[in-house]
Design a protein that fits this description.
With about 180 residues, this protein is an all-alpha fold. It has two domains: about 30 residues; about 130 residues. It starts with a helix and ends with a helix.
Length: about 180
């Protein structure tokens, strides 16, 4: 008896692992496809954004600006090429403009990806809710046919109704507005 249970558990686990692996492969392939379809400019902006967001960028700038300052205050014994640091100011300002643009482009791309994921999550949730509603309706019917106590529970009737996303969003927004108003925010 114990061996049959173990074999069934292994089959279930094996099937589940196969499904999970299939889903992971599908998601990875989709990410690769999306990455390949990105415009060249967007890929460059993301790479620059990733580089500027790491410590190598900070260390490089600290070294360059440190040498620049030390050179131009005369500590190296070399003739200063920017004694009033005007060139350094212009370079850092122009760099800041471009880095801000690249980071905003990268952020826009990340926002678009997050929106896609949120849409996918919503679709999966709505599909799951629909499937569960159908299962609940079937189980309720079976329970009624077998005369199971509690089959006529009004809560089951309520749960057996499909969720209407627009109505749900309207209710959420109304409740949120009311809560904010009640809190005096």
């Amino acid at each position: 008896m114990e061996n049959n249970k173990e074999r069934n558990d292994e089959k279930t686990e094996s099937h589940l692992v196969g499904v999970v692996e299939k889903n992971i492969t599908t998601l990875i392939n989709r990410q690769i496809k999306d990455e390949k379809e990105k415009p060249f400019e967007e890929r460059i902006a993301e790479r620059i954004g990733r580089f500027t967001g790491n410590l190598a960028f900070v260390y490089t700038h600290a070294a360059i600006f440190g040498i620049w300052v030390i050179w131009n205050v005369g500590w190296l014994g070399l003739k200063p090429f920017d004694p009033d640091f005007n060139a350094l100011q212009v370079i850092t300002q122009v760099e800041a403009i471009f880095l801000t643009t690249f980071i905003l482009m990268s952020q826009n791309s990340l926002d678009a990806q997050a929106d896609k994921r949120a849409d996918l999550d919503l679709q999966v949730s709505l599909l799951s809710e629909h499937e569960i509603t159908r299962l609940l309706t079937m189980v309720k019917g079976i329970a009624q046919k077998l005369g199971v106590e509690g089959a006529e529970d009004p809560e089951i009737d309520e749960l057996s109704k499909d969720v209407v996303p627009d109505k749900l969003m309207d209710t959420l927004e109304t409740q949120k507005e009311k809560s904010i108003k009640d809190a005096g925010i």
